[in-house]
Every structure is written in structure tokens, then in C-alpha cells.
């Protein structure tokens, strides 16, 4: 099959949650595509056990340009500060709202604090990130792209994760609503919907899920016959941010190996 090469030279991409997992893969992919990458995360060191070099340093070691900005997306002011950091490089051209939290548990056992945490990160954090990035683009009279990391949970319910499903369902409508309002400004807003990807939010989650992938546990419900990996989501994200998707906005692109159609 043909090879795809994206060119984001001269552009600045912000990736929240870019230190580990899916976010790290996205940030590295933008670095390979010659974008200036701002890695926004709560911690600089990656959680992935197989990676000991911070994402921005890995990009720089490969000849790219990157910066780490300590960011808790649950704090709106910190999100806005990341946009300010991008202005040092000319302003944000691509905003990837990727940082998120997983909230699992029985529906009847959830505490209201669980919902608050999910809302602050998965919804408000992405709302403010989308809003702040769009405002910067409009102020500069610049077209741009915003890509949110949603989930297959944006479309369907799964056992033991009502709170998580609720936030990801809301993220789908945030994406569509923002796309509708920002289209006239030349700003596209889309989202990826990862399925069972071999990474998790916990510090030891990646090792565990990669073992599950190696054991074939992820293969049973996936028509394409393999586990998903962060790089799969990164490829979809770069596509949605690129001119190749220049007539696409308000879409939720599933990256699940066909899991939802099985």
C-alpha cells in the first residue's frame, strides 16, 4: 500500500496529555512531520515503562523543535497559558485536545466527585482548549485545525463506565457544535474515536494492556484481527489536522479496527 507523508513545516501543534500513551505518539508524529510541538501535560516524564526520554526531548533528538509546558487541563488558566506559549512560535495552528481521565465503576457506586473529575478534564478541559485555540486563530486571522481525542464510548455504552461514557458522549457534541460555529472562520474541528488501544491512563496500565494484546485478548471482538496501538490514533489525528481533510469538519473518526461493526 502507498505511504503517506504529512508536512506541517512552519506550523505549531499543541498536544495535551502528550507525555505518554496516545498523546506521546501524536506529538512524535507531528515532530516527524516537522511541526513545532508543544507538549502540554501534568508531568514531563512518560508513564510508559519502555520510554524514559520525555516526548519533547525525543522530538529534539530527532532534529525537531519542541517544548514542554506543565499543564493540568482541569485548570482553565493553565490551558490558556499553553496557547500563550504557542504565540512565541507564531500562534497555534493545530490544537490536539488529547488529555483525559478514565472513570470506571458500577453505576450505583459512583460518587459525585467522580463525575466532577471526569467533567473537569474530559469536557471542560477540551472545551476551554478548543475555545482558546480558536480565539487565537481568529485573532491572527489564521485558519487552523482542532482535533479532540474522543472514544468509541462517544457512540455506545459499555459496562462499568457510565461516567466515562457520559463525558465522551458530550465530547462528540462539543466537537460537532464547535465545528458548526467555527466553520465560517476557516477552523475545522474533528475528533478521533479510539477503540481498544494498547495503552491506559494508569502508570502500570501500558504494560498490562500490551500483555493483554500479546495474549490475543483484544483480538476476539476486532474484525481486523489485531490490537490497536497509539500510532494508529496518531495517524488518524494527523490526517484530520492536514489539508487532506480540508473539507471535513464535525466528524468523529473511529479508530477501532472495526470493533463497532462486529
From TrEMBL:
SUPFAM superfamilies hit by this protein: NAD(P)-binding Rossmann-fold domains
- Keyword vocabulary terms for this entry: Oxidoreductase
Q: What Enzyme Commission number(s) appear in the record?
A: 1.3.1.87
Q: Where are the transmembrane segments?
A: none
The EC class name is: oxidoreductase
GO terms (molecular function) for this protein are: 2,3-dihydroxy-2,3-dihydro-phenylpropionate dehydrogenase activity; oxidoreductase activity, acting on the CH-OH group of donors, NAD or NADP as acceptor
InterPro entries found in the cross-reference section? NAD(P)-bd_dom_sf, SDR_fam
- Give any Pfam family that matches: adh_short_C2
Coiled-coil intervals, chain numbering = none
Q: Where is the signal peptide?
A: none
Gene3D superfamilies found in the cross-reference section: NAD(P)-binding Rossmann-like Domain
**CDD domains assigned:** SDR_c (cd05233)
NCBIfam families tied to this protein: PRK07231.1
Q: Which family does it belong to?
A: Belongs to the short-chain dehydrogenases/reductases (SDR) family.
Q: What is this protein called?
A: 3-phenylpropionate-dihydrodiol/cinnamic acid-dihydrodiol dehydrogenase
Annotated source species:
Halalkalicoccus paucihalophilus
Its lineage reads:
Archaea, Methanobacteriati, Methanobacteriota, Stenosarchaea group, Halobacteria
Amino acid at each position: 500500500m502507498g505511504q503517506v507523508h504529512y508536512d506541517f513545516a512552519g506550523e505549531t501543534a499543541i498536544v495535551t496529555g502528550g507525555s505518554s500513551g496516545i498523546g506521546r505518539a501524536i506529538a512524535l508524529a507531528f515532530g516527524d512531520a516537522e511541526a513545532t510541538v508543544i507538549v502540554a501535560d501534568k508531568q514531563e516524564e512518560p508513564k510508559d515503562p519502555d520510554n524514559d526520554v520525555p516526548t519533547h526531548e525525543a522530538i529534539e533528538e530527532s532534529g525537531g523543535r519542541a517544548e514542554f509546558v506543565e499543564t493540568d487541563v482541569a485548570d482553565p488558566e493553565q490551558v490558556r497559558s499553553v496557547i500563550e506559549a504557542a504565540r512565541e512560535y507564531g500562534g497555534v495552528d493545530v490544537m490536539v485536545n488529547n488529555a483525559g481521565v478514565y472513570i470506571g465503576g458500577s453505576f450505583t457506586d459512583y460518587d459525585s466527585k467522580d463525575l466532577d473529575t471526569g467533567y473537569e478534564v474530559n469536557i471542560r478541559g477540551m472545551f476551554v482548549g478548543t475555545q482558546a485555540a480558536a480565539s487565537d486563530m481568529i485573532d491572527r486571522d489564521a485558519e487552523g485545525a482542532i482535533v479532540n481525542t474522543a472514544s468509541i464510548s462517544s457512540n455506545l455504552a459499555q459496562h462499568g463506565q457510565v461516567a466515562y461514557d457520559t463525558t465522551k458522549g458530550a465530547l462528540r457534541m462539543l466537537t460537532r457544535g464547535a465545528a458548526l460555529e467555527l466553520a465560517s472562520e476557516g477552523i475545522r474541528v474533528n475528533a478521533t474515536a479510539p477503540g481498544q488501544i494498547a495503552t491506559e491512563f494508569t502508570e502500570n496500565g501500558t504494560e498490562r494492556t500490551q500483555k493483554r494484546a500479546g495474549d490475543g485478548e483484544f483480538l476476539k471482538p476486532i474484525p481486523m484481527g489485531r490490537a490497536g496501538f497509539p500510532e494508529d490514533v496518531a495517524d488518524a489525528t494527523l490526517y484530520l489536522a492536514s489539508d487532506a481533510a480540508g473539507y471535513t469538519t464535525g466528524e468523529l473518526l473511529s479508530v477501532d479496527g472495526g470493533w463497532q461493526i462486529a
